[in-house]
Predict the 3D structure of the following.
Amino acid sequence: MDAALPLSGPVDQWRLGMPAENLGAGVGTVAFTASALSANRAGPGPAVPLHIAMAEELSRADSALVRLPEYRGKSLVPVLSWLIVNRLVRPGSEASWYLHKQQGPGSVATLLTGLGWQDVRQKREGRLVRITGQPPHTAELPETKSFTDTVGSVELDFLADYGVFSPGHIDDGTALLAKVALRQEPVEVLADIGVGYGPLAIGLVRNGVARRAVATDVDCLALWLAERNAAANGVPLRVECTPDPLDVEPTSLTVCNVPTHIPADAGTALTHALAARVRDGGRLLAVVHASLEERYVRKLATTGVKVTRHPGAAHVVLEATR
Ligand SMILES: C[S@@+](CC[C@H](N)C(=O)[O-])C[C@H]1O[C@@H](n2cnc3c(N)ncnc32)[C@H](O)[C@@H]1O
């Protein structure tokens, strides 16, 4: 899906994380999430997920508008400033940032000035504050927080930041799933659904469980980190920004540290699609907190798969086969 995106063509204005409204010709969009990407695709201009915008050359525009995501931390501001300078606008352009008062417009304005933005000014617009300025001509990509941890017999370095799941250490559920997966017969390719910054896909390939991995996530920042972590650790990984696990190729092993804090209908659709990935002779390994064990065993069993349990201290890995 991502490979077919139209990345070229003239763009007058890039919009990042903005509502998908008034998307006329000449408006390009950058999405932080799969749902925003899908809404942006209704417009005639290029609709690009953030992880691709960070990696590819794009048409330069004369202006950019950013809706600064909440709950991501201010460390994202220098990353988006880098994106605007190095991918989105021509020298001499203006760009505006929209944010709530609670997101600290004063400190964001100071941060932008420190990053070399000129003529930075603030204006109230409805419920939001708009910060406008001229981006610098050059920008350095800031450092991303990272940590080192071990999966199986391999020590790995991971970038993990910007509110992506489990910064600073490998989650206990992830570690239990990896332990169970390391006992499996090796496969050619594995799928990691909800890859996050990539500990399962990368850790399992580096331990020889698969030669390569395909992965999904609905969070483009997670996919950006996963791609960088895979490249740094020498792991072939192909990612898709999608809520549907069936959007990546069929594989005989699928792993998932299940996102359980999502709306009930999205959770049910995800569980059914995970079960639909299980082919004859193949398996799904899904980890949930032990308190959710019975609920997820029931959800999977209604799809007709056989479920075996691998309990850990606080989590359980559910193994689904046909
Ligand atoms: C519990 S975290 C696990 C992340 C990573 N696999 C790990 O073990 O650290 C779940 C991930 O699923 C993602 N997610 C939520 N809904 C999803 C969906 N429908 N399809 C794919 N990923 C999804 C979240 O963005 C999050 O990165």
Observations:
- The longest strand covers residues 89-99.
- The chain has two domains: 2-134, 146-321.
- The pocket of S-adenosylmethionine is lined by residues 165-166, 171, 174, 193-196, 199-200, 216-219, 222, 243, 257, 259, 262, 266, 270 (CB under 6 Å).
- Residues 102 and 278 are 45 Å apart (CA to CA).
